[in-house]
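Q: Got a minute? One more chain.
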Amino acid sequence: MPGFTTLPDLALRTLGGSVVAASDESFAEKESLIRPGRPGFRAETFGNKGQVYDGWETRRRRTPGHDWALVRLGLPGAIRGVVIDTAWFKGNYPPYASVEAAAVPGHPSPAELAAAVWTEIVPRTALKGDAEHHVEVTGDDTRYTHVRLNMYPDGGIARLRVHGEVRPDLSVYDGLSLDLAALQNGGLVTACSDEFYSAPNNVIAPGLARHQAEGWETARRRDPGNDWLLIRLAGPGLVRLAEIDTTNLIFNAPGHVALTGLTGVHEVELLPKTRLQPDTPHRFRLAHTEPVTHVRVDVYPDGGLARVRLHGHLA
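A: Always. Here it is, folded:
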């Protein structure tokens, strides 16, 4: 897998993304493009419009032009790579696709987006049926808010993944507290000891985890030591309240947790080693006077966390 796939999917529905418009969705709905998880398929499952697909599929085009879909990024940011997935589309995939991006402030309508200035970030690229196509985006550090997926001339695409670095507008929090660890605020898990069962960035995703796979869970540790992850905060700040949520982790929650703030090589204890309960949201008031840029979350000895929230103020 290319390195950019470890970055958050800025377009993902569960991170606030939306397919706001499409030229056509006669056979399969446009919203499928940004669903989480792998596309599913059941052969010979027919509805009123034909075979049911977990993807976006347009009618056969009989006029000039091409089909397109407009996606609002749930997390605006700098795009580092795109995945165009034609899973299960074998005789009806588009032979080519391209991706454009735009930076549009506020809450634009589809008509306003159509009139925006668009930049091509993925040139017209040949596609194969039932395959993932990974395309790295280089040399562009622009903060984008929307992308437009073009397919030539028509057909079906199962998923669109837009991986990148989150670039939020934190000015709305001036004078207010915020979750310094949150993915949507620019937080990022930059390292962890183990991600055997699920990705560590899940713990700073929006909303609540619906099941174990939507949190972070490590393999069973068979050697000395403990598991950990390192969160880069939205900016240097003072963390006043930590939420450590083990919801859904009933038989595989850690026994204890500790939090350490870091600025460069300097460390400050935020929360000493503290007992956790399974399947429980925990809240801890913290008292420290030094702004930190990162927080290390140590779990003892292993296990899973559903969410980590670190509320406080930017320094």
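A: The chain has two domains: 3-166, 171-314.
Q: Perfect, thanks.
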